[in-house]
Amino acid sequence: MNGTTNEEHSTPTGGKDVVIVRRHVTIEGHVQGVLFRESCRRQAQNLGLGGWVANKPRGSVEAVFEGERSVVETMIAWCRIGPPSAVVTAVGVCDESPIGETHFAVH
């Protein structure tokens, strides 16, 4: 057993295991109308993550990030701050099972 849960997938890469995770994130605060989705897309693509980001009707932003665990955690840390005009008040994170998503989209 490699210590992964059903929300993680271990893939051998260059002699070491890379743990792939998928996290569903909800960001609350003043996060719409401040380029949060576009900034999030750019950041996720620069990090090589798959997933998506979308505005929600009640004013929050929802996103899914899939990729190497440490990189996904870096992206979640970015979400706690967001772009300069955002005021993030809360970030919720839930684990999901990886599905092999490699493209990042704005919905």
Summary of the model, kept short:
With 107 residues, the protein is α+β, with helices and mostly antiparallel strands. The protein is built from two helices and six strands.
Task: Describe what you observe in this structure.
The protein has 107 residues and is of the alpha+beta class. It has a single domain (8-106), classed as Alpha-Beta Plaits. The chain contains two helices and six strands. Helix 1 runs antiparallel to helix 2. It is globular and about 40 Å long. 26% of the residues are buried.
Number of domains: 1
The CATH class label is Alpha Beta
What characteristic shape results from the CA principal axes?
Answer: globular
How much of the sequence lies in strands comes to 35-45%
The stretches of 5 or more residues where confidence is low (pLDDT under 50) are 1-6
The CATH architecture category equals 2-Layer Sandwich
Which structural class best describes the helix and strand composition? alpha+beta
